[in-house]
Amino acid sequence: MNRLNQLFTTKKDNLLSIYYTAGYPEINTTLAIAEALEKAGVDFLEIGFPYSDPVADGPTIQHSSQQALDKGMTVNLLFEQLKDLRKRVTIPILLMGYVNPIVQFGVERFCKMAAEVGVDGVIVPDLPMYEYEKMYADFFKDNNLSNIFLVTPQTSEERIRKIDELSNSFIYLLSSSSITGGNLNVSGSIEAYYQRIKAMQLNNPTVIGFGISDNKSFKKACEYASGAIVGSAFVKLLEEENYLEKIPEFIKSIRP
Amino acid sequence: MKYGVNEQGYYGDFGGAYIPEMLYPNVEELRQQYLNIINDAGFKEEFDQLLKDYVGRPSPLYHAKRYSEKYGANIFFKREDLNHTGSHKINNAIGQILLAQRLGKKRIIAETGAGQHGVATATVCALKGIECVVYMGEVDMERQAPNVARMKMLGATVVPAKSGSKTLKDATNEALRDWIANPVDTHYIIGSVVGPYPYPDMVARFQSIISLEAKAQLKEHTGKELPEYVLACVGGGSNAMGMFYHFLDDESVKLVAVEAAGKGVDSGHSAATTFLGREGVLHGSRTILMQTDDGQVVEPYSVSAGLDYPGIGPQHAHLYKINRAQYVSVTDDEALKAGLLCSQMEGIIPAIESAHAFAQLEKMKFKADDNVIVCLSGRGDKDLDTYIKYFNF
């Protein structure tokens, strides 16, 4: 059991998670932002480590990644910044990033370091199930890390079942087949998709992400899933002055 | 085929489909259907017909007499420069547009660097009356303005890629993002033997016509089944893979792939991927790519926009690792001089990409009866500005 598993066992609905890019807007604010988010009541965090070619991301997160890279953000530096993570933050933490930086760091070493600093799970959008199962699943298991898989409206039932089997904390439902930062457009077919997933009675809880930017979209997502993830909308807030002070108000605007 | 792809999409350690879940249905649809479609008799018939009547195939295998004398061997040029639209890129574009039609797709997207693949794609979309959107780095659009105009004239929409370094790799990222947002009605025509499986295999099959013809043509010329050497330039590697394809299993044939060293392999301005790269993941496949210690993709440099790519196709990475092909590199200067030499000795102005392969001839030792095939992948019209500036014509 890691912190994520515990969270999902004790709290079943209205969970709020926030994504932000490590090293943005300032190189050394990774932990300060995490602390502020915990204080504001967020249930768990996704900390992105930047990549030069983030194909699943829209302009907002691309921009934050490029800025972070320009400021010198690396995987090594992220682990350095997270050394005191568990002295300052208690909520579950996920790392999110693309596969190539992890492969270069060494997947086994990455998992070990993540566990050492107190990370609970990893999201790697471009790591396929086949490669994960064949080459890396043991590293995740040995370090008690959850690997989070994505599901889109186009993912087949058979594949969702397989993902459910390989997951051990939650499944990340994409609100639409899109890159990050779009609008949650709950049309008939999307509701049908959420209902279809709900009716499958999966072993793992689901959390909805991509396009969650305000209270309305958060509430809608929570009708169908255990919670929702806000990314681009929060990264935009970080562009403003005194962003740390504005965090509580922002979180209240999503989940009063 | 001994060096072909396995069922999981791998060539030895390289390949696979490292794609986000959003792209899975698109790529899976292709994976399940591409072999059935391209092996279908009706497809083959239409493909062959278009290659013959529209592209102008077979492209000649030209015995270059003055080059043969100079280099002391029988030198042949495979004349892909004579294809409609001026390069080998059209072979793949024709194959993929026919495939897209059979998949019921209504919209085509593509990435382009120098614009050759973009022009080829815009051309086949005009031919079939299908909407075409080409992503091109903002920097490349300035460098290759005539090709941007050609694409527009052919009815395509050219969208500038403004992210990252604003060149080919970013155009590829933007095309992938478009495909994520339009998963049902759109087909992505990748221009090289790169990307997630099945693209590297599919594009190699469409380009394999180059070596299929060359093998038969060499026999007509010389009575011999096999050449001693086959040379081609490599960016992503599609003309090279097409040129190598039907010689891969003939182990006596020495395959030479020529990368762009730019201003020199150690100059910090180079695109010599096998010299400067390490194993990793780029644009959906495990391959060799130029990257920092932290795994960030490095922006390559070459005077030739078509070779200016930070990776190579996964099959090339495999052929490199197991030593089935030799990977060498040639600088901007060497390539431009080779382009001039080819112009003045054979009356053919080659694309600067292809000139890299010619430059390698200078560094090789041949026996008098060696048969050597060089892939002349494209013509140099698009590069006149660069040649003019370099030689001060």
Report a brief summary of the structure.
The complex is a heterodimer of chains A (256) and B (393). Chain A is of the alpha/beta class.
Structure description:
The complex is a heterodimer of chains A (about 260) and B (about 400). Chain A has about 260 residues and is of the alpha/beta class. In chain A, about 50% of the residues lie in helices and about 15% in strands. Chain A has helices at about 5-10, 30-40, 60-70, 75-80, 85-90, 100-105, 105-115, 130-140, 155-165, 190-200, 215-225, 230-235, 245-255; strands spanning about 15-20, 45-50, 95, 120-125, 145-150, 150, 170-175, 205-210, 225-230. In chain A, strands 5-4-3-2-1-9-8-7-6 form a nine-stranded parallel beta sheet. The longest helix of chain A has 14 residues, at about 130-140. Chain A is globular and about 45 Å long. The relative contact order of chain A is 0.17. Chain B folds into two domains: about 20-50 and about 90-205, Rossmann fold; about 55-85 and about 210-390, Rossmann fold (3-Layer(aba) Sandwich), CATH 3.40.50. With about 400 residues, chain B is an alpha/beta fold. The longest helix of chain B is centred in the N-terminal third of the chain and has 16 residues, at about 25-40. At the A-B interface, helix 3, helix 6 and strand 6 of A face helix 8 and strand 11 of B.
